Amino acid sequence: AAPQGRLLCGPGLRRGGAGLLVTKCGLLRHRPAGGGAYWVDSQQKRYVPVKGDHVIGIVTAKAGDVFRLDVGGSEPASLSYLAFEGATKRNRPNVQVGDLVYGQFVVANKDMEPEMVCIDSSGKSSGMGIIGQDGFLFKVSLGLIRKLLAPKCEIIQELSQLYPFELVLGMNGRIWVKAKTVQQTLIIVNILEACEYMTAEQRKQALAKLSGN
Amino acid sequence: GDTSVLAGLYGPAEAKVSKELPDRAALEVLLRPKVGLPGVMERSREQLLRQTCEAVVLGVLHPRTAITLVLQVLSDAGSLLSCCLNAACMALLDAGLPLAALFCGVTCALQPDGTILLDPTARQEQEARATLTFAIASSERKVLMANTKGSCSVEEMQQCLAAAQRAADTIFQFYRDSVRRRYSK
């Protein structure tokens, strides 16, 4: 019997004709909370901008009052210089070409150019903004990012017992890591990249070998 | 048999202004033969593949973008066009592009004595009276594309089509098994 109420149709499903059409291949997931939501969990490497997603972008050009950022989608996103915390017309943020910026999408649909901001709805930056110097940026698949962003992710907990490090995860598949030395940073990068294909036991073995060294 | 084709899909990416379409994605197919430069046969096959893929890919979800499909022939032992069709469909599945249906390619060879051979080798194709390739969609086994080399009567074509639709079931089951293996890891 179909439950009453609104059913949410997530990524991978479309309304077509009398029912739902599946448009992507993957595992069908269901969340009974709220009115119920169905979506298809698919593995992808290509990012498509979605409103509200937090992403890491690379500044490619400054065009007057607006920065162009490469977010890995089909178009460069735009970021206004006033969209930072505490920015006014006199007090401009210090952003150069090639900087990394962590922000969220405020406009992202298929017909318009995506727009990003580095403040949330109340005007606070809450962790967004220009990412500092040093560190290492690399790209992984979107499925791994979703796994890492899940609450109580084991990978991050195990890694934090190895060395202290700073980590920024972008929903567009980009990860920025910074540890105390270059060697530690590279070790963390290699483990995160390999996590995609390793099972939990292989990961624990690799980490045990490293912490024994 | 031994025919193998490597497929790579790139997209949706930024399209050149001259090539972008305002309401849908622009699909481009590049077919590279094993030896030599691409010739006229490759161009005609590319157009066939492009029209088949455009019928299933939901291009309206990604306007003003370009989707590029590159196919490299690794070895050719007959039934090349249907091998390219199957490789293209698996590449579309793997990349996560929104599709309205899956498709598969089946080749039938009509021998001089009237028997129908599925997935012929290169020698069987040469001896055959006619070679037909069909692209069959997964939704109600509809025909997306039909390509014929040689001559045959209408009844024979209908018989080949029925045999190809039955064979399509095996190929779709193969797709399902490969995807299941990938997601069970």
Summarize the structure.
The complex is a heterodimer of chains A (213) and B (185). Chain A contains 4 helices and 14 strands.
Written overview of the protein:
Chain B: Pfam families: RNase_PH, RNase_PH_C. Chain B: It is found in: Cytoplasm; Nucleus, Nucleolus. Chain B: Belongs to the RNase PH family. Chain B: One of its GO terms (biological process) is rRNA processing. Chain A has four helices and 14 strands. By secondary structure, chain A is of the alpha+beta class. Chain B has one domain (4-184): Ribosomal Protein S5, domain 2 (2-Layer Sandwich), CATH 3.30.230.70. Chain B has helices at 40-56, 80-95, 122-127, 154-184, and strands at 4-14, 26-32, 65-75, 103-110, 116-118, 130-137, 143-150. The longest helix of chain B is centred in the C-terminal third of the chain and has 31 residues, at 154-184. Chain B is globular, with a radius of gyration of 17 Å. The two termini of chain B are 28 Å apart. The interface between A and B is medium-sized, with 18 and 23 residues.
